[in-house]
Specification:
With about 200 residues, the protein is α+β, with helices and mostly antiparallel strands. It contains six helices and four strands, in the order ααααβαββαβ. Heme C binds near residues 92, 111, 114 and 160.
């Protein structure tokens, strides 16, 4: 009697274990089949991290080093002067190449106080975004916009004067509409655009 009770219990336990095991394996298999969705906010964060890292490495490990060693300077009219592009121009140029590649993602550097008009806000959304990050630089301003038949996700990240040189150069540039930048001020923003289907 006791023995059969033990056997019965073991039998039931085994069936339960098997059930749990089967459920687990099925869940695992299903998991691998499920389409993965990544929020556009995440994609924008990824792209933004790469843009920032590239600009920083270019500015510190290329431009600063070349200038220190007296090899070549970075200058605004780098094409004509056979110089290195400024870090801002490095970002703008890589953005141009990415746009030309046709993958769909775009990015640019913009400001409400731009040295050049082409870096001004190009839409209501961008203007709102630049205003928002100027007030609250720790969070990107995001949203969906429609251009023609295309639906796009856009994110504006604050671009701050992380070094004195940022503020100084903009303050003394003859074209700059603003001359009171200080260290850490928000000078503009990086606008990232991601197509999200019709
Ligand atoms: C030596 C001068 C110089 C320095 C240093 C410099 N910039 Fe600029 N920046 C420029 C010029 C020139 C442009 C316009 C480039 C163009 O459109 O070809 C520009 C463009 C920008 C723009 C786009 C809006 C605009 O003004 O046209 C932002 C935002 C910006 N810079 C932020 C920064 C930040 C942040 C730093 C420091 C990390 C920095 N800049 C350092 C010269 C400079």
């Amino acid at each position: 009697m006791k023995r059969s009770l033990v056997r019965g219990t073991v039998f039931v336990l085994l069936i339960m274990l098997g059930g749990v095991g089967y459920w687990g394996i099925e869940a695992l298999l299903k998991g691998s089949d499920q389409p993965v969705t990544i929020l556009p906010e995440k994609v924008a964060d990824y792209v933004h991290a790469i843009i920032e890292a590239n600009r920083t490495v270019y500015a510190t490990n290329v431009v600063d080093k070349m200038q220190e060693k007296g090899i070549v300077e970075a200058a605004e009219h780098w094409r004509q002067e056979n110089a290195l592009p400024l870090p801002a121009q490095f970002l703008i140029e890589t953005g141009r190449l990415v746009a030309e590649s046709g993958v769909g993602i775009k990015y640019r550097l913009a400001s409400l106080w731009p040295i050049y008009v082409w870096n001004n806000a190009q839409s209501d959304f961008e203007r709102k975004g630049l205003e928002a990050v100027a007030k609250n630089p720790d969070r990107p301003f995001t949203g969906f916009v429609r251009i023609g038949r295309e639906r796009l996700f856009q994110a504006v990240y604050a671009d701050r004067a992380v070094a004195h040189a940022c503020a100084e150069c903009h303050n003394r540039h003859p074209n700059s509409p603003r001359r009171d930048y200080k260290l850490n001020d928000v000078m503009g923003g990086i606008v990232i655009t991601i197509p999200v289907g019709p």
